[in-house]
Amino acid sequence: MRFTFIISATIFLSCNLSKKHEPRTIERSFYFWKSVFKLSTQEKDALTNLKIQNLYIKYFDVDWNTSNNKALPVAQLTAPDSFFLRTTQLNIVPTVFITNETIFKINIDQTEALANKIIILVNSMNSNFGVKLINELQIDCDWTAGTKDKYFSLLKFLQKKQNNLNFSTTIRLHQIKYLNKTGVPPVKKGMLMCYNMGNLSNINTSNSILDVDDLKKYIGDLQNYPLPLDLALPIFEWKVLFRQNVFKGILENMPDSLITQNIFSKKANRYEALIDTVLQGYDIKKNDIIRTEKSNYTSVLKTAKLISEKLSGNTVRVSFFHLDNLTLKKYKLHEMENIYDAMR
After folding, report:
1. What's the average model confidence in pLDDT over 235-244?
2. Does 38 score more than 90 pLDDT?
3. Which residues, in sequence order, are CB contacts of 61 under 8 Å at separation 6+?
4. Mind listing the pLDDT tens digit for each residue in 65-119?
5. What's the CA gap between 207 and 303, in Å, rounded?
6. Euclidean distance between CA atoms 147 and 91, whole angstroms
7. Rounded distance between C-alpha atoms, residue 308 and residue 24, angstroms
8. CA distance 343 to 337
9. For the chain, what percentages of helix, strand and coil (3-state, to nearest 5) are there?
10. Per-residue model confidence as pLDDT tens digits over 290-317
């Protein structure tokens, strides 16, 4: 009996190991998250050299307009480089960001009308840009337990009004951990956003973009999530401004070279202003704290490996956020290749 058990256990383990390490197909993707679509040579080279297949492009935001007391599109994309969009072989995925405030403020009987407006605007922009062969539309919203019913209603109406498209939605880590409260959206698949997991506005937070230890607290039951998941990984960085320990905002695209020793004192990833100054149009006061937050290669690679062990799909899209000259300078080509390969 003991001998039989050892043989059975060996077979069981070998089968599970072979299944765990079975390679999956990785679709390489990027997000484009700026309001003007005009790619630089460096950005185009990255798409080519990394053999990118999918490009998620934010078309517009939907925000709540307090003056008109209704949801309106803002930050609508313009495309001086529409020739690229007309001629590219990439799979273009229009993406629409909807604020949770918008979902909170609308009535559930208004979700059909909002879905109709979103579809009309997306189709109009596709036509203006010359984008063809769209097969997916992604909706990005950090919904909560209190807004899930209205958000899910909106998603159902979107699918009903454009049934030739596959709809996907972004999934935050808290929506994985608190699945029973936030629910599962009625779409074909989700995009797991593995970043912005810390409390950005807390002065004591070390890095709100990506912390592997924090990540582990959210993904314990990830393998049981009832929706096929793709993965978005951060390769961006930003600086966070605090005044009298109160969050004042994000300083985007500010190079480290501007934070000099004669103006700031440094401790770890925090810089304290020694004098009043202006940096790239931002007013900085004496004693302000600037916290530098980065998604470094080692942390992103660890994240990819952790998530890879949890996902069961044979094909997974892995998307970097986001395509930008400054972002690309922080990562070498082989580093991004390694991160993609870690998901196999």
Report:
1. 95
2. yes
3. 73, 74, 75, 96, 97, 98, 99
4. 999 999 999 999 999 999 999 999 999 999 999 999 999 999 999 999 999 999 9
5. 15
6. 31
7. 10
8. 10
9. 35, 30, 35
10. 999 999 999 999 999 999 999 988 999 9
Average pLDDT over residues 134-138: 95
Tokens coding 33: 């998250």
Quick check: 231 and 308 in contact, CB under 8 A?
A: no
**Is the entire prediction scored with pTM above 0.85?**
yes
- Please give the Cα distance from 321 to 236 (Å, whole number): 7
Q: What is the pLDDT of residue 20?
A: 56
| Other beta carbons within 10 Å of 139 | 23
Work out the end-to-end distance of the chain between its first and last CA atoms, rounded to an integer number of angstroms.
38
Whole-angstrom distance, CA of residue 324 vs CA of residue 42: 9
pLDDT at 18: 35
What residue type is assigned to position 184 of the chain? V
> Which amino acid does the sequence have at 20?
K
With bands split at pLDDT 50, 70 and 90, how would you rate the model's confidence at 3?
very low
pLDDT tens digits, residue range 276-292? Answer: 999 999 999 999 999 99
Q: How would you write the chain as a 3-class SS string? A: CHHHHHHHHHHHHHHHHHHHCCCCEEEEEEEECCCECCCCHHHHHHHHHCCCCEEEEEEEEEEEECCCCEEEEECCCECCCHHHHHHCCCEEEEEEEECHHHHHHCCHHHHHHHHHHHHHHHHHHHHHHCCCCCCEEEEECCCCCCCHHHHHHHHHHHHHHCCCCEEEEEECHHHHHCHHHHCCCCCCEEEEECCCCCCCCCCCCCCCCCCHHHHHCCCCCHHHCCCCEEEEEECCEEEEEEECCEEEEEECCCCHHHCCCCCEEEECCEEEECCCEEECCEEECCCCEEEEEECCHHHHHHHHHHHHHHCCCCEEEEEEECCCHHHHHCCCHHHHHHHHHHCC
The first and second tokens of residue 81, run together, are 């480089």
